[in-house]
Amino acid sequence: MKAFTKHTGLVVAMDRANVDTDQIIPKQFLKRIERTGFGEFLFWDWAKLDDGSTDPEFELNRPEAAGASVLLARRNFGCGSSREHAPWALEDYGFRVIIAPSFADIFYNNCFKNGMLPIRLSEEMVDDLFARAAQHDSYQLTANLEDCTLSDAHSLSVSFEVEPFRQNCLLNGLDDIGLTLEHEDKITAYEAAHSK
Amino acid sequence: MPTAANPPRTLFEKLWDNHIVYAEEGRQTILYIDLHLVHEVTSAQAFEGLRLANRPVRCPAKTVATADHNIPTTDRSLPIVDVISKLQIDTLRNNCQQFDITHYDLNDPRQGIVHVIGPELGYTQPGMTIVCGDSHTSTHGAFGALAFGIGTSEVEHVLATQTLLQVKPQTLELRVDGTLRPGVTAKDLVLYLIGKITTDGGTGYCVEYTGEAIRALSMENRMTVCNMSIEGGARAGMIAPDETTFEYLRGRQFVPKDYESAVERWRQLPTDDNAKYDKSLKFQAADIAPQVTWGTNPGLVVSVNDCVPKPSDYSDATEQKTAASALEYMGLTGGERITDIQLDRVFIGSCTNARIEDLRAAADIARGHKVSEHVQAMIVPGSGLVKQQAEAEGLDRVFKEAGFDWREAGCSMCLAMNPDKLSPGERCASTSNRNFEGRQGKGGRTHLVSPAMAAAAAIAGHFVDIRDWK
Ligand code: SF4
Questions:
Q1: Using the beta-carbon criterion (under 8 Å), do B32 and A102 form an inter-chain contact?
Q2: Domain spans of chain A?
Q3: Chain B residues 128-157 within an 8 A CB cutoff of chain A
Q4: Which value does ipTM take for this structure?
Q5: What distance in Å separates the CA atoms of residue B48 and residue B156, rounded to the nearest whole number?
Q6: What pLDDT, in 10s, does the model give residues B268-284?
Q7: Which CATH number fits domain A6-193: 3.10.180.10, 3.40.30.10, 3.20.19.10, 3.40.50.2000?
């Protein structure tokens, strides 16, 4: 798994709630059998006009969003389908950090498995970040997973919570399967005790 | 028996405790998985991961696969036209062969939507932990199983270790007292609950549905309710096993050989008296009318005799914005009566509502009527066995005579990965579970309803209150 310690990047604000994984990566792109190459299809139905050309109005297509790696959104981000293609597409596009007041459980979990950091903040704090992103050109945020702080160049510094186990796995890029297999004897013992 | 040393526990807590392989302060619990269901869309990358790391599948016998998401629902003897779909389906078949996993292939009568065939074949049983790379795995919770959807990295983890790393969720009791009114179904019940708790009300929770109205539901109806737990944000939703559960499973192909002693074990599972949920919400069955969604998430729902809301009906700014963009996408302005909404398409299918009881309910409405001239309606059974049963009962003839299209089993227009899809602007009454933008085809407009409501809408050409149907 990819490690994540600290990241500074350009923020793109997506003022939408309940962004579902069907939007993040529409189903017509789920037929691929690889893990890579999904970035160009990210938010396809929103990013393209009916004639297939790029919609200049869509948040990620605006010139000021070029190179963004921090995504700011509203509540319940990543709801719906369990498709891990959604974090694959976000990561492949270049996102490393996603900030929202809440995330759907499966999506939240999938992010960590792909070296991306989802950060939950209060509604008020997210409101404040939207205001800051609107106020400053090329607004950047720094997410530091070691001390769990989010900061900007305009004296903002807030802490966020991450469960210690996930923090440790992500900081060190640990392979979940490898970690579990360290306890293989316990799996074998469980199976022996429960075989009827 | 709960004692001071063994405090009363909920159904969820018993299942969780029974499956702990290893727990330690400060790390996620290693939870044993009894049944792993696999389909073509979320598994290829997981099998590839195993190959790259040179890892075997730990328990092929606890893994069952079928292709459902992007298969055509037309004649199965014809080749699959979409080459990328075909590659994905072939890849699943090859992976199952290589790793020695049971696979219900397209020509097998037992093939179908993974959440329909698990229970139907008796793989799904009370007390189990069940996972699948699909969010509607919550369906299997209807049997008193702990069942939830996972991502592809987790699919690989389960294949390699037969366990998962998990954070213990909290418990949420949704209790529905009283009796559902005539014409009101399990689908209406669950849409109503989602409307009340909203689409993220269940986030971080495992839901247990309780109360008289839930106990009275058949197994198929319980599956409809648990299926949509994820639409309320809960990864898992469950219902305690009882005689209804045991009778449904008795005699199915893969249930335990010594069935009666299995039933004795399963009787220990329901939540103990005085056990505490982290949160409990109560509802009255009599308050529930047939439901119709009007927006672009399942929580945007009203009763059939209501009007579509306006953004100004909401107080919260984010909700106003969500409502406004949902109305725009849906081609509505707010204020329309639901029964005035005209339809172009009707889809009866999906893991929510494509079991035999759903098809019977739709056929009861359709019998002797004709589908409206401006509506195209299709029926896609949840599995090959459901299709066989429906044909044995003559339901296919009822549908065909009424002008419905009768298809082969699969996910079909629930997510439109195969050729069954809406065109931009088309409006559809659908028995599926998601009305997200583009879910049934780019620009398509989906209203979620029960099978009876969908059938009546197909005939009338617009929504009707099923309670007035003659
Ligand atoms: S029927 Fe729809 S919701 Fe159910 S598994 Fe298939 S695509 Fe998913």
A1: no
A2: 6-193
A3: 133-135, 149-154, 156-157
A4: 0.94
A5: 9
A6: 999 999 999 999 999 99
A7: 3.20.19.10
